[in-house]
């Protein structure tokens, strides 16, 4: 029996999570799902310029696991760019710290962990929520 997948630590969420080639109808485009931790691996290595060991430490995984994650991410992006596919950033096995959110409809304030990936208020069911701390820990929902 394989070991359970360990959650990868991520620090960044993009504001835009869907990228589509210009001039192609959406109904004709294949989507490629890029996991949140795959994007984080590319950000750390390719944008931050960290070495593999530093990246692995930040994500709290082994160097080999980090290499597997970034290899998968780069392949998905390369395929999407060369074949004209859409990229959707979603899912994965990731975790970050808790963050406080406020519902703009009912005023409820609550904490959520990103691994739960909830975008609705637990009180009223609204998806009209914002980060109440604006601390940068929850860029995924901050507007």
UniProtKB/TrEMBL annotation:
Q: Which Pfam families match?
A: DUF134
| InterPro entries reported for this sequence | RNA_pol_sigma_r3/r4-like, UPF0251, WH-like_DNA-bd_sf
| Family affiliation | Belongs to the UPF0251 family.
Full protein name: UPF0251 protein CROST_040390
- Source organism per entry reads Clostridium felsineum
